[in-house]
Design brief:
Elements lengths: L2 H42 L6 H8 L3 H7 L3 H12 L4 H10 L4 H17 L4 H10 L4 H29 L8 H4 L1 H15 L13 H16 L9
Helix pairs in contact: 1-2, 1-4, 1-7, 4-8, 5-8, 6-8, 6-10, 6-11, 7-10, 10-11
Organism: Ramlibacter humi
GO molecular function: DNA-binding transcription factor activity; transcription cis-regulatory region binding
Protein name: TetR/AcrR family transcriptional regulator
Length: 231
């Protein structure tokens, strides 16, 4: 092949590569935008985060951002769905497939929640909602529907499983018992994002030890009394 033909062939190949690269870049943009938005929402809060900042951090124009997400509210909802609420189908299937005891399931639930949400950037979403929910009632209602309600339903299913098997006490108010599992996890998030600054430097909070201890405390309250005992 002559040099001119070789250069021409390379030029054609390079030209053919351009749409493919552009297409890959286009397909990656929503994820890049959501990652950038999550970082900024956690760092600055919802109110203080501007759409332009998200676009800059993701390396795209503001127009590109609004092409995928028409408003900052839509962007926030997509961040919540990507990082938390979109995973409930997977978590509910794990409930169906779980083969251990209900006590084991409670421990698993709390540990896995910390590993997958609490220890990640996504935990900042909970802190953001605690601090800004009253100023954005539409987002608060969305978070209630997408995160809080499905989470409570899943915890209730775990507790009901234990009651049905005789592991947990019958007659518990499962609606309120569910808070005994979620409340310690919210505290751990607040320690991570806010309250740790108030804690003594010589008293570090180990998340794994904390989660396991809270699970033990909860389970001693849930477990059925041994036959013939008063407590």
């Amino acid at each position: 092949m002559s040099l001119s033909k070789l250069i021409g062939a390379r030029g054609e190949a390079a030209a053919d590569d351009v749409p493919a690269k552009r297409e890959r870049r286009k397909e990656a943009r929503p994820k890049e935008l959501l990652d950038a938005a999550l970082d900024l929402f956690v760092e600055k809060g919802f109110a203080a985060t501007r759409a332009e900042e998200v676009a800059v951090r993701a390396g795209v124009s503001k127009g590109t951002l609004f092409l995928y997400f028409p408003s900052k509210e839509d962007l926030f909802k997509a961040v919540v769905q990507e990082n938390i609420s979109g995973r409930y189908a997977e978590w509910n299937q794990e409930f169906v497939d779980f083969e251990g005891t209900s006590a084991d399931m409670v421990r698993y639930c709390m540990k896995v929640w910390w590993d997958r949400i609490g220890a990640t950037r996504a935990s900042g979403i909970t802190k953001l909602m605690i601090s800004e929910a009253r100023n954005f009632p539409e987002l608060a209602a969305f978070y209630q529907q997408e995160v809080i309600n499905p989470g409570k339903r899943l915890i209730r299913r775990i507790l009901q499983r234990g009651v049905d098997s005789g592991e947990f006490r019958a007659g518990m108010d499962l609606e309120y018992a569910a808070y005994a599992i979620s409340a310690p996890m919210i505290f751990l998030i607040m320690m991570k994002h806010s309250l740790a600054a108030c804690a003594p430097e010589d008293y570090p909070l180990d998340p794994e030890r904390y989660v396991m201890q809270q699970a033990d405390v909860v389970l001693h309250g849930f477990c059925a009394k041994p036959e013939g005992t008063d407590r």
